[in-house]
Amino acid sequence: MNQHRLNWSNQEICDLMETVGGHPYLVRVALYQVAKGRITLDRLLKVAPTEECPDCDR
Predict the structure, then answer these.
(1) Sign of the torsion formed by the C-alpha atoms of 46, 23, 34 and 38
(2) SS3 letters for 14-32?
(3) Which has fewest Cβ within 10 Å: 9, 20, 31, 47?
(4) Beta carbons of 36 and 26 less than 8 angstroms apart
């Protein structure tokens, strides 16, 4: 998390890991997207398990 300058709680980290199944590439992409401000963690956690496009409503 330090590399991306994200100050997340243990629960937020666990939520992300559970959502992406711990897949290293997906974790990396998610961290990058959140750190760049392209999506929030809350939004990512909502749309990740669906077929919805995370950037479609922007």
Answers:
(1) negative
(2) HHHHHHCCCCHHHHHHHHH
(3) 9
(4) no
Q: What is the pLDDT of residue 2?
A: 55
What is the maximal distance between C-alpha atoms in the chain?
Answer: 30
10-54 pLDDT tens trace: 899 999 999 999 999 999 999 899 999 999 999 999 988 887 766
Number of helices and strands (H, E) in the chain? 3, 0
Cα 43 from Cα 54, distance rounded (Å) = 8
Residue 11 to residue 57: CA distance in whole angstroms:
27
Count of residues in the chain: 58
DSSP H/E element including 44? helix 41-47
Average pLDDT of the chain to the nearest whole number: 84
